[in-house]
Amino acid sequence: MNQLYTRFSTLRRSVPFSLRLQLAAWYTIAFAVLLLLTGAVFYQYLERSLEASVDTDLQIRAQQIAGGLVVHNGTLNMSDLTAALPGFGIAPQAQGARLSDVNQGVLVRLLDAHGVLLGETPAFRALRVPGASVTQPLQGAPWQGTVLSTDEQEVRLYSRTLTTGGNPVAVIQVGESLFTLHTLLHQLVAALLVVGFLVLLACAVGSYLLAGRSFAPIQRLAETARKIKAGDLHQRVPVPPVRDEVQYLALTLNEMLDSLDQSFSRQRRFVADASHELRTPVAVIRNKIEVAVLRPRSPDDYCTVLHSIHAETERLSHLISDLLALARGDEGQARFERETVRLDQLVESVAANADGLAQKRGIRLSVQAPQPVTLIGDEARLIQVILNLLDNAIRYTNAGGQVLLSLQTTSSETQLVVRDTGIGIAPEHLPHLFERFYRADPSRRRTGGSGTGLGLAIVEWIVRAHGGSIVAESQMGRGSCFTVTLPLTPQASEAAAVARETHC
Ligand code: ADP
């Protein structure tokens, strides 16, 4: 199957402008069918009209013959008829081939009221006439139909009676060969076929050229799109002024390039920021070691240097695991467990762990989680959400301040609120807080030692992967409030896809 598909694709690729050819072929086929149908209808109509005109001719001729016959005392005088029609009579006589040929000779027959032959032309003798053509007119209705001659020629026949005083005296039968009519129709069909073929040829060439013209803008678009290299994503394809499918395609391509451009720049910025962040602690460690080994020092001095190197490596290790988590999220490799989580218990236990740090910094940490809250999610990652928010709240709150961790639940969702009375965030920073490596104020960098600028980006990614959302509110000097809304019904899998898209 795969092989077949590969061969088919190779064949398609090897045919130039195959779509153009296909379009031209479809146009031509459709036109051919239309032409054939029109030709068939036209042929039928013409055949019927010509036959009808033959029938009218026959009726007039029969009328003329009837008008020329004289009935005297019940006896029919046919002398005028015999004189007008060479060879007309009962007995066959030696006649010229022309007169006895159904296609060339006159076709007339006369019978009496009993169906007995009164006279006929030589050509008429070659006809196979059905009995109904005599009996039906005698019963009152003229007969009309197509009969065959002995040499299978088609002949149109009309049969009527001659009456005197309401009684039939004779049956007059006249006929006309359909040979000329059929020859005419055959010539017409031949002419139609030749003209039709030429028209179809013109249609095929015309539609091929037209399809080429219609595809030219698409071809130009494709060529421009091909020129746009991965590193040159700020280029755009030209948008045609006419509002048509090509314009729509160009706009779609440009939209795609926009989002690719944004995504690539985000990626580049991320790599640059990551390298910068990784370089700083390494440079600090190297510097400390270089200074330490400049001259011999006391064991206490070495111990101090080792402690500060340890702190830097801790920070480095945090940074690397954060980077790894986000990179896995971007790749779609991050696995999210779907387990039953008691969020109220998680909040209590994370707060209990952080309480020591809060007390050390002179901050009062309180928790309000009055009722049990159960949801489906990844427990370890939800702990990371609470921990990151709580860690920030403690870090950016001065001694004597307060941090409140609360849980408010409705029937469909729960809100985890982390509120502090800390230094706050300026309004211009709020929209960027969840961007990677974004820090509200560079001078706050590394306050407390372990900030990487990735904490909130990771929080947002996890929350979105759980189908939730996060909002930050803050007032400078008065404190900040982070509200995480999580649905109680699981939507994690769809949301995970959304999270991957947003962080690409
Ligand atoms: P970091 O590791 O630097 O804290 P985050 O992504 O967690 O990185 O936070 C980004 C920035 O948002 C921080 O550098 C800080 O400026 C600001 N911020 C986060 N939480 C708070 C808060 N509770 N109070 C004041 N500023 C905050």
Looking at the structure, what is the overall shape? rod-shaped
Small molecules bound in the structure, each named once: adenosine-5'-diphosphate
Mean pLDDT across residues: 86
- Beta-strand proportion: 15-25%
| Strand order within the widest beta sheet | 4-3-8-7-6-5
Please give the count of helices: 12
Give helix and strand order, one letter per element, not per position: HHEEHHEEEHEEEHHHEHEEHEEHEEH
Please give the number of β-strands.
Answer: 15
State the helicity in percent bands. Answer: 40-55%
| Distance between the first and last residues' Cα | 34 Å
Major β-sheet profile: 6 strands, antiparallel
Class computed from helices, strands and strand pairing:
alpha+beta
Rounded to an integer in angstroms, the radius of gyration calculated over CA atoms is 51 Å
**Low-confidence spans: pLDDT under 50, at least 5 residues?**
445-449, 491-504
Main attributes?
504 residues; 53% helix; 5-stranded mixed sheet; binds adenosine-5'-diphosphate; alpha+beta; 15 strands; disordered C terminus; 6-stranded antiparallel sheet
